[in-house]
Specification:
The protein is an alpha/beta fold. The protein has helices spanning 62-76, 84-94, 103-117, 121-124, 144-156, 170-182, 200-209, 224-230, 247-256, 272-284, 298-308, and strands spanning 3-21, 26-40, 45-50, 133-139, 161-165, 189-193, 216-218, 238-240, 261-265, 288-292, 316-320, 342-343, 365-368. The protein has two domains: 3-118 and 357-368, Enolase-like, N-terminal domain (Enolase-like, domain 1, 2-Layer Sandwich), CATH 3.30.390.10; 123-343, Alpha-Beta Barrel (TIM Barrel), CATH 3.20.20.120. The protein has an eight-stranded parallel barrel. A four-stranded antiparallel sheet has the order 3-2-1-13, sandwiched between helices. α7 (200-209) links the parallel β6 and β7 (216-218). The longest helix has 15 residues, at 62-76. The structure holds magnesium ion. Magnesium ion is lined by residues 193, 195, 218-219, 241, 263.
Length: 370
């Protein structure tokens, strides 16, 4: 089987509500999504998505994905899309680094492999380990009462997990955490996500001030170095996601005990081919896992939850349904949809569905054999 054509679409995905990170310092209204369609000489077509959470958040840029594809795509025409590591090697050789620019292509190749072998993404990744993926809501920073109101909206949809964004003024963060913990329901899971916003000092002040509450924090500081320095000075479990990009990052996190939770973002790390290695490394070291997209439509959500389902239930902390935060749906009624706050495996080969192509507008680029 050979890749004959790669078609790229750009689509703005508006958020239903403005979204604030880092204590309100960053605001987001719309996501810049890239969809990739890969066609083959055997009539199988695969789809993949790469949607960063805006470009002010981390070094990942919507137009950068399409520029990266422009550089890599001509080298991929003629390769067998089922040979995932061959595709990976070709992309890494043509464009070292820039992993976020590679995920949409990698994911479209997984879709093709699944269709060619009549296996779903979850089956290809090792099988559905049961229990469904607990979907974490994404609660933007506000006053404690505003944040509780958002949590209540998700509770009404069955959500039992919440990724709560903190990382503003540290005294207010302590207030937010104490208040929300006092309102947490039995069995409910809350992850306090700092998105790198605290200094080392602020991280230690907050994490140690709420040590009686037994809560977990995601990405309290900017770098892995920062986390390495605060790790011995607090008892709170730490999750890393923004600084978990490469296999080398995961190796270091595991070997040095920098975090007890791995937040694997399949688009940040370059797709499922690379993400499954991070999964295996985390599992081998007793590190529990969240698997999410960096943002995007039901395609990105389904790709991420397909991997999450392959993780043993006791090691799988949750996933995300960014689709629930958008005003547009590019594949209505298809893909993994929140069922009372959980995602379940699809019984269809590959990704399991396709988007409504006309909703994606005109292709912004087409690459094919000369
Ligand atoms: Mg996070």
């Amino acid at each position: 089987m050979k890749i004959t054509k790669i078609t790229v679409f750009q689509k703005d995905l508006p958020l239903a509500k403005p979204y604030y990170l880092s204590g309100g310092r960053l605001r987001f209204d719309v996501l810049d999504a890239t969809f990739v369609k890969i066609e083959t000489d055997e009539g199988i077509t695969g789809w993949g998505e790469g949607t960063p959470w805006g470009h002010t958040y981390i070094p990942a840029h919507g137009p950068g994905i399409r520029a990266g594809i422009e550089t890599m795509a001509p080298r991929l025409i003629g390769l067998d899309p089922r040979a995932l590591e061959t595709i990976e090697y070709a992309m890494d050789k043509e464009l070292p680094g820039h992993l976020y620019a590679k995920s949409a292509i990698d994911l479209a190749c997984w879709d093709i492999l699944g269709q060619a072998s009549n296996m779903s993404l979850t089956e290809l990744l090792g099988g559905d380990r049961g229990g469904g993926v607990r979907i974490m809501s994404s609660i933007s920073t506000g006053t404690p009462q505003e944040m509780l109101a958002l949590i209540d909206e998700y509770r009404a949809q069955g959500y039992e997990g919440h990724s709560v964004k903190v990382g503003g003024d540290y005294e207010k963060d302590i207030e937010r955490i104490r208040f929300l913990e006092s309102q947490r329901l039995p069995g409910e899971r809350i992850l306090y996500d700092v998105n790198r916003a605290w200094s080392r000092r602020e991280a230690l002040l907050v994490m140690n001030a709420v040590s009686d509450l037994a809560v977990s924090f995601e990405q309290p500081c900017e770098t892995l170095e920062d986390i390495a320095k605060i790790r011995p000075l607090t008892s709170a479990p730490i999750s890393v996601d923004e600084t978990l990009v490469t296999l080398q990052d995961m190796t270091r996190i595991a070997a040095e005990g920098l975090a007890e939770i791995a937040g694997i973002k399949i688009n940040r790390v370059g797709g499922l081919t690379k993400a499954r290695r991070l999964r295996d490394m985390a599992l081998a070291h007793g590190i529990q896992i969240y698997v999410m997209a960096t943002g995007g439509s039901v395609i990105a959500d389904t790709e991420a939850s397909a991997l999450a389902l392959s993780i043993p239930e006791e090691m799988r902390l949750g996933g995300w349904a960014c689709q629930d935060m958008l005003t547009v749906d590019i594949a209505e009624g298809r893909g993994m949809r929140s069922q009372q706050g959980y995602h379940y495996a699809l019984d269809a080969p590959g990704l399991g569905f396709q988007p409504d192509e006309p909703l994606l507008g005109n292709a912004v680029a087409v690459y094919e054999a000369a």
